[in-house]
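Q: A small favour: would you put together sequence and structure tokens for a protein?
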Amino acid sequence: MRVILHSLWLALIAVVALAANAPARAETRVALVIGNAAYSDVPRLSNPVNDAMLMAETLRGLGFKLVGDGAQLDLDKAGFDRAVQNFGAQLQGADVALFYYAGHGVQVRGGNYLVPVNANPTREADVDFQMLDMNLVLRQMEGAGTRLNLVILDACRNNPFGGRGLRATTGGLAQMQAPEGTLISFATQPGNVAKDGDDGHSPYTRALAETIRRPGLGLFDAFNEVGLAVKQATGNAQQPWVSASPIKGNFFFTAPPAPASLPQQVKLQPPSAAATLQPAPATDCDRFAASPSDADRPASVPGVAFDQIDAGRAISACRAALTQYPQDQRLTYILARALQAGQQFDEAARLYRKAADAGNAPAMISLGGMYRDGRGVAKDEAEAVRLYRKAADAGNAAAIARLGFMYKDGRGVAKDDAEAVRLYRKAADAGNATAMNNLGFMYETGRGVAKDDAEAVRLYRKAADAGDATAMANLGFMYLEGRGVAKDDAEAVRLFRKAADAGARAAMYNLAFMYENGRGVKRDTSEAKRLYKKAADLGDDDAQKALARLR
């Protein structure tokens, strides 16, 4: 009983205003967002790709034009140079420039260097040719004449090249003098090392993405709030640092709400023409958004919280929040999820489309799922592919994984196992657990790649360690069959039970099989029946047949 499911990384994107005082023209904001993790000669990093994608989504929602139309991931030296050069070119005529980097950074001779994924210096002099001097980025900003320049460095990690020729390098980054009109924010104090985080994002980037969506925070207030949040999250172990020159005027990532007394025609509007918002307070609506389950699955398919949530309560909470914040596409998207869980598919599809049209990538994915399955809309797999591709082009790893699934099954596109493998690998490298699982399946079955049970086991284990229930079930199956790993019925039972507790239907069936046949556990027909029934109630036809056989 084998299943490949899809999972969704939820991105909460707010639509916000640009400034506190009405400008004569729309403020032009340009950002270059880079995340380097897949280093070839030093240990890879876990979070920079996730962090960069989160920041890209957040900044897009704040009216920033992104260089490359999304996060730039795993850049080698040549790619890094091109990205910074393109950044400088696109800054001409802009008002605000923002540079964000997550990845390895090193301090050499008192200067700060960002590390491309192919860097491998053997002596100190190599840094000038293999790494990017941060002063180059500052010069691109200064030369553009932008009113405000922001540099954000989540790169204060241990020197990965210690003992390999860079003996002059110390931990963390050096303090930098901010040129006129510039603010530089470090994830931690100069010379210190920041934490990577253990939940998919660094504490600094998570706090930054959440804080800059809050309306009415001035520039320095925003970074002060980020610092306080990081100190709290790390138990005072990490303290972000800011270097800034005097900055003229006021800047808000998210503008304060316009006074109620202002006439409608002079209220500020962001580029999307949506009204200024405040994020809704935490409610059942937000708790539903935090569910780890797959947003584009129909409610009849088993999941974790997605199937167990009180959909009626979530719908009511989201409708109430939207009444107060009608332009918040994050709430629109969450309400659509609640409606889908409540099997109100037509209304869910309408709201997904509204949020997707406003640039919400998770909504594009969920709407694609409805077109794929014909729920709430006429079935149209080509339209599903188009929506997945649009979100994938914005750097969304979950969308890349879904696009791979469509190529694997030939749905909406010509069947192409090699392309499916390429997409799964790209999403897996970005940390998507579903893609890891699906790529493992391709190795197990020899589709698009040479059959390799050991590699399948490695990928299943990596996805399982990330919490993917389907991968746990698949790994259990490999232990059951002794494929790519020593045969171990007891370990198979442990994995099936863990996956079943997380809601994986296939694992319920397999665990019932183990009890029925006394493999890895004492034979227990009663427990087998219970588990078969649980799987059958979730729509498993094989479990229904097994249950009938045991009656």
